[in-house]
Write a structure and sequence with these properties.
Chain lengths: 289, 276
Amino acid sequence: MKTKSLYPYYLIWPALFVYCVFFVLPALIGLFYSFTDWRLDRETLKFIGWDNFKQIFSDKTLVLALKNTFIFAIVTVIGKNVLGIALAIGLNMRLKSKNLLRAIFYSPSILSVLVISIVFTPMLRTDGTINKFLEAIGLGVFGQSWLTDPSIVIWTVALVSIWQHTGFQMAIYLAGLQSISKEYYEAATIDGAGAWSTFSKITLPLLLPAININLMLTLIGGLKVFSEVFVLTGGGPGNASQVVGTIILRAFGEGSWGMGTAINTLLFAAVTVISIPLLIFMRRKEVAE
Amino acid sequence: MSYTRKLALRNYIVEIFLLVASLIIIVPLLMMIFGSFMTSSEVLRFKLALPDKWMFSNYTQVFKEGGLGRAFLNGLLITGVSSIVNIITSSAAAFILVRRESKLSSFLYMFFFMGLIAPMSIITTIRVVQWLGFYGSITSVIFIYAALNVAFSVFLYSGFIKSIPRALDEVAFLEGASMLAVFFRIITPLIVPVNATVAIMVFMSVWNDITIPLYFLTDSSDWTMPLSVYNFYGKYSRDWNLIFADLVMTSLPVLVLYLFAQKYIVSGLTAGAVKG
């Protein structure tokens, strides 16, 4: 009784109000609009059932956009986390230049995706810096039409994103590593444990909270990808690198708002279905450890 | 070889490897910085080299033609107001959510937490803002950013407020303090470092974003720096020296903030890494 009167709920109202009006309400009416033929050039709305969703799955470009979104998400989750852990372990050692190196690897992640994407555009051309460099060191065969070959373009965009954001994941892993007591490692050394068993039996399990948060952040961020694709390729060549985010912009521009909202609903469902069980699973594992 | 010497050797190898690897990060950034001082023909070689002659005039030219002064102030207004709104509303909400410990408060916590996961619905947000009558304005963008960041901030504040003993509040209540007095005179001073972390995290993500301004700022005089840069990039796609100068200027505010406020960023990251 006492806590109730001492801590009234009205202090929550401002946050709840802003959050509900500008985030939750659009999400809810989006659910409704996904089942309508809402268009820029039409006065009236008609309820059309699952038609928008049927159309999404019969349209090659839209299916490709969904596929690209998943490729981007999976590639970046693996790249950012594997490299992030590796960098964090390296930079957690007693190196002379560790502070400088940490700052260097972290620095791209504080810049705008727009800045990085524009810097990489001339470098990724067929006659650009990267191919020239590969040729110069005798690895010319690995040269690619990074942004113009439809079969690899989404991978290129994912690589740029890994380049930019791995440092952010590294910083979270570093914080996680620093919270592990040194005694575990001393004990392992005394017992004669090798590098691999130390890593898999001590570092990895104790790093689990950091791994959890990083997997969630990179997965959710990956599924919501927009700016990288928008600036680097604009969805091209053709539609080869379209993702859900850029398709929504296109649908918005064309005035097919019902359709655009339906795609967003699909993304919403995918993110929820993938991340909530993952969240629950990882929580359990964390407690069990 | 003794154990310590082996360890020292291993550290040397790791250090050399990481120093070489860091070039992958440094080279593109240096190309941008050096390129921003070159002439428009020199920059087109896209090589890592110091400029023949340092063209500081690139910066003044871009600043004028790119409308960067205006864009800088717009960005400052949007990021500043949305982080302040976010800090006040989220810390107050987190305070009650943590102290109540009821079913409703844990439901509301999850309700906010969903905001970290769910993608925003852009097209219908435009509709809502149109209903409210301020589509296309800076006000709409400020409220949207405040809403988008509520989830993250409530999460961060809750973790911190939990560690403040409830006994502190109780003593104040016994002395006859009101709830608002407890919040502003006891809790607020204790969460100043978290305020800094939230302010910086919100500032950086909002400053760098192009998605929301692209959809919501219909008038070019309201644009933020990244959106002006994008527009400039489309118009001056041949003058890479000017584009690079534009990119450097857009990045300067966050770089300065990073240099002065590193420790608050680190504490934000630690909260995520340790609490999960």
